[in-house]
Amino acid sequence: MEQIVNNFFHLPVTDPILIFALVLFVILIAPLVLDRVKIPHIIGLILAGVLLGENGAGVLKRDMSFELFGAVGLLYIMFLAGLQMDLTDFKKNSKKSVFFGLVTFAVPMVLGSVSSYYLLRYFFAKSTLDFQVTGVFSLDGYLVLASLLIASMYASHTLISYPIVGRFGVTKNSAVNISLGGTMIATTLSLIILAVIVAMCRGEVSAQYWLRFVGSVLIFALIIGFVYPKLADRFFKHHEDSILQYIFVLAMVFLGGFLAKMASLEPIIGAFMVGLTLNRYIPRISPLMNRLDFVGNAIFIPFFLIGVGMLIDVRSVFSSLNSLIAAFVMSFVASFSKYLAAVITRKTFKMSKEEGLMIFGLSNAQAAATLAAVMIGHSIEIGVTPEGISVPLLSDDILNGTIVMILVTCTISSFATEKAARKLVIQQDQLDEKLSDEKLEDRILIPVYNPDTLNSLMELSILLKVDKSREPLYALAIANKNAAHLTSEEKAKKLLERAAKIASATDNSVRMMTRFDVNVTSGIVETIRENHITEVVMGLHHKNNFADSYLGDKTDNLLKATNQMTMIYHSTQPVSTIKRIVVAVPPMAEFEVGFVKWYDRVKNIAKQIGAHVLFYAHKETLDQIQVLVDRKRFGVPTQFKELDDWEDFLVLTGEVGDNDLLVVVTSRKGAMSYNPLFEKLPSYLSKYFHKNSYILLYPDQFDEENPESYKTI
Q1: Spatial CB neighbours of 8, under 8 Å, sequence gap ≥ 6
Q2: In what order do the strands lie in the sheet with 390-392?
Q3: Smallest Cα–Cα separation from 566: which of 601, 591, 590?
Q4: Which tens digits make up the pLDDT trace of 77-113?
Q5: Dihedral angle of Cα 525, 529, 530, 536, to the nearest 10 degrees
Q6: Is 593 helix (H, G, I), strand (E, B) or coil?
Q7: Could you read off the pLDDT of 129-160 as tens digits, one per residue?
Q8: CA nearest neighbour of 574 among 291, 247, 233, 293
Q9: H-helix or E-strand containing 108?
């Protein structure tokens, strides 16, 4: 008991268990309190660090644990930024990103250099400090270098408010993507300025230095650009264990950070580049993405924010007039220059005020690179006083002013980002309503029977769900105690529980249904009728004998008995490793009732996994698909090739590669787009495409005058 009391009342707290518990309580309580006063959570965590740190109440010490978790949290922010970026939109807006990156670097560099030079001159004029300059530069030369270094601190920025963007679900907005691309350009240039200034102060700049720097950066880029994708592709194809996948991703992130450091770049650049590389291997709605996002936002990122707050010493700032002046000038110049860069970008590309505010919010926060620059600048000696005290390139006043600037810019950034995100969400919701031609209330039914196909069926069903849909997935097991060929009640329960577990990892719910019936088809049909199911996702039938049909009698009967969209999925690899979707569409498919619906589902899959799409169809059908692509903002690279005659279907054997998903849009007998040649599809698929993942897609084919009608068996 005495030890507990001593641990609690002797500050700072040293017991690691108690430290971790206190931090968790801060992470828990801060959002609950700040929600009432409408202050962003990020500010609450930074202020908590100020109050509890050594410069505040002294409850917690910024020891190695905070440095470790803080470093992890910072890399995590940059990694998630790259991972959640819409690469298609990023490529589309690459010129805008480059423009913004150069502007948000150049404007702070110009304003910062001029203001910092005169600020430092003022400090020296007011100071009685007398010292002898050492090194290769005169005092005025060092003042120029110090001014450039401070300006580079303004030019860089940290995506500290990016978690707000993720919380509001606007990570794919073009303003966000422009900000992310510009961030890497501005931060990279700023860190190069830092490296060059440090080398100049130490007299190390030479042709050999530049050759070594350029060479190491090229090697780093080659490893991230070519080696990482091959490793990721091989790993995700052969390992589906969720824990192994999570560990693999984290290992890749921190190895990337270390490689960047070895290349004389900051680790945050490595983490961001790894995020971009792994972007297409981790669907936005997937168990792995959910785990990465959850752990980062629950533990690592809050630790980083609290650690930033612990660096701030408010008392030291108010104890010196020079520190106060530095804090005011630095905070103003940093925020004004970033705001000016955002305004220039917004007006140049005629963006909305909300998008301009988002760009400013994301680019205003100073933290990671700024801290690195000021600490390095403070450690460089430029002279010695008569008493033998070293004089740093950046004085204590600049150091204190920088810490306050970090707090001010992070606060402004958080408020601006949250305000912009709220408005963009409202605008996006209104736009989605205007673009929606139909109410897409998706009720997806997954009949479960084979445990070997359950993972792939659930994975596909999750990707098919309409964004923001609150409907659960419907998993059905047909059981019968007396029929040996049907699923037993115990087996059905285990399969349904496993399906629910897979879905819950992506924050999706599953309605588990067990139906007792001697006829599988009738059980599925009745379930469709009772629950108003809109589509069915099922696995490919396993042939029991030579006379058995390719799809199986149960599937054939189901297609005859229902009109709902049905997908029969044959999976040979995880859907996250698919690089392209090849869609074969029959003539007159555009006249079917379910034309727009199946198009939307293919679009959802492609967007989630970042795959390209190639449509094969008759010219008239391709024209209608092009209309949908233009009107519905497909969002992924799309190609079109003519397939005039369905008898030429086998030309796809030369088109569909190892990492392609083949989607064959077919039709039930009697439908407008039905072709007798569809009867040959099963033999074609089993003979020529058995090594590929493919989907046989049967669209909705309701009677338009009576869309609720059902066929009878």
Answers
A1: 18
A2: 132-133, 381-384, 390-392
A3: 601
A4: 778 877 877 677 677 778 888 899 899 999 999 999 9
A5: 70
A6: coil
A7: 666 777 777 777 888 888 888 888 888 887 77
A8: 233
A9: helix 94-126
